[in-house]
């Protein structure tokens, strides 16, 4: 288990549904005290062993329980046992064995998704993604969390946890850095925030007039963040901040390129998708804006602001019926939001023929 990655788990063997299973390559002697075929008895014995750090004795208990009942719960429980075992081996400095137990944990969680009584709960995605990450299989970890985000039965808390994990995973691999480079990076970030934040354009609303000094600050801030991403190429927030500064300066084309770079690293983050979509709408590329906005809603279905963004893109693209439906849903979810209220009214007026349909941003009807 790689140092610094052991925090990614989700829960241990006792915090989830009871289960057990076997896993490829596992050949322990299947003995677990007095012979029994009662699953609960086998699990109780296995849990007692695991609680007391006797993982080798716990393993055959869970494997025998799995022979009696091969449902997804048993796979999850065995995967958690192996994860706890890997953690114990890591603490003991036995890295090769820790990695082997992590691989067994991942295989068990994968088995949960193949069980006939599946699919397992969303928690299993968190657990499997954590194993992949600790095994340095970052792409597989991200793909597993994406599957969770797309599950229709995922709860808001499930998605929130997935987004927290993704915020970390997408930054991997972090560029090798000395203490000096890290200090320089962090200082540049703080300088950049101080220079850009006072002039941010919020959610595409009207820009305030910029003085020469304001413009100079924004350009300095962009320079700071260019140096940040040179030091840390996967720092998506660095590209996002550059995009916001370029947007404030009225350089929509360059802003879009910065937001696009951020989205290439972290397409799941709501603020990244929001700004990429709005930048396309400012460029008059409404059909592309719809595609980006649809992606953002897919990954963040509980965010009414993103749904309103999708409705806006659909309005500009001439998709009045879907724009009207999505704007109504966004307003129902956030009835006090002034921007959504205005959007609903504009769509109604366009549909009634009382005003022409806007085709790009900025638009006097929508600003």
Order of helices and strands: HHHHHHHHHHHHHHHH
Name of the top-level CATH class of the largest domain: Mainly Alpha
Output the structural class.
Answer: mainly alpha
Distance between the termini: 52 Å
Counting DSSP H or I runs of 4 or more residues, the number of helices is 16
The dominant shape is: flat
- The count of strands amounts to 0
Oligomer: single chain
State the domain count.
Answer: 3
Query: Which percent range describes the beta-strand content?
Result: under 5%
By CATH, the architecture of the largest domain is named: Alpha Horseshoe
Radius of gyration: 26 Å
Would you tell me which CATH topology of the largest domain applies?
Serine Threonine Protein Phosphatase 5, Tetratricopeptide repeat
Q: Low-confidence runs (pLDDT<50, min 5 residues)?
A: 10-29
What characterizes the major β-sheet? Answer: none
Helix proportion range: 55-70%
CATH homology-level superfamily of the largest domain: Tetratricopeptide repeat domain
Please provide a written account of the structure:
- With 367 residues, this protein is mainly α.
- It folds into 3 domains: 39-169, Tetratricopeptide repeat domain (Serine Threonine Protein Phosphatase 5, Tetratricopeptide repeat, Alpha Horseshoe), CATH 1.25.40; 177-251; 267-367, Tetratricopeptide repeat domain (Serine Threonine Protein Phosphatase 5, Tetratricopeptide repeat, Alpha Horseshoe), CATH 1.25.40.10.
- 65% of the residues lie in helices and 0% in strands.
- It contains 16 helices and no strands.
- The radius of gyration is 26 Å and the shape is flat.
- The termini are far apart.
């Amino acid at each position: 288990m790689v140092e610094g990655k052991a925090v990614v788990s989700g829960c241990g063997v006792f915090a989830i549904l009871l289960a057990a299973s076997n896993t490829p390559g596992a050949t322990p002697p299947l003995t677990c005290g007095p012979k029994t075929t009662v699953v609960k008895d086998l699990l109780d014995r296995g849990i007692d062993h695991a609680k007391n750090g006797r993982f080798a004795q716990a393993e055959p208990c869970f494997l025998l329980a799995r022979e009696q009942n091969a449902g997804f719960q048993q796979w999850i429980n065995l995967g958690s046992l192996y994860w706890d075992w890997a953690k114990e081996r890591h603490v003991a400095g036995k890295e090769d064995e820790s990695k082997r137990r992590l691989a067994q944990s991942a295989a068990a969680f994968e088995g949960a998704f193949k069980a006939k009584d599946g699919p397992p709960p969303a928690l299993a995605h968190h657990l499997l993604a954590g194993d992949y990450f600790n095994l340095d299989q970052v792409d597989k970890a991200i793909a597993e969390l994406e599957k969770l985000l797309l599950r229709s039965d995922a709860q808001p808390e499930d998605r929130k946890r997935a987004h927290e994990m993704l915020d970390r995973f997408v930054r991997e691999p972090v560029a090798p850095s000395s203490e000096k480079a890290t200090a320089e990076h962090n200082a540049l970030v703080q300088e950049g925030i101080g220079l850009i934040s006072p002039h941010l354009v919020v959610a595409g609303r009207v820009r305030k007039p910029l003085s020469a000094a304001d413009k100079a600050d924004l350009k300095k801030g962009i320079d700071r963040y260019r140096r940040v991403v040179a030091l840390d190429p996967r720092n998506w927030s660095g590209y996002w901040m550059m995009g916001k500064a370029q947007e404030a300066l009225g350089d929509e084309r360059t802003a879009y390129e910065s937001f696009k770079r951020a989205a290439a690293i972290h397409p799941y983050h709501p603020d990244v998708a929001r700004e990429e979509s709005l930048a396309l709408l400012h460029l008059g590329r409404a059909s592309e804006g719809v595609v980006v906005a649809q992606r953002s809603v897919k990954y963040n279905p509980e965010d009414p602001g993103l749904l309103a963004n999708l409705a806006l893109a659909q309005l500009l693209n001439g998709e009045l019926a879907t724009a009207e439906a999505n704007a109504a849903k966004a307003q129902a979810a956030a009835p006090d939001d002034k921007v959504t209220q205005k959007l609903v009214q504009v769509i109604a007026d366009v549909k009634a023929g009382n005003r022409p349909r806007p085709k790009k941003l900025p638009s006097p009807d929508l600003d």
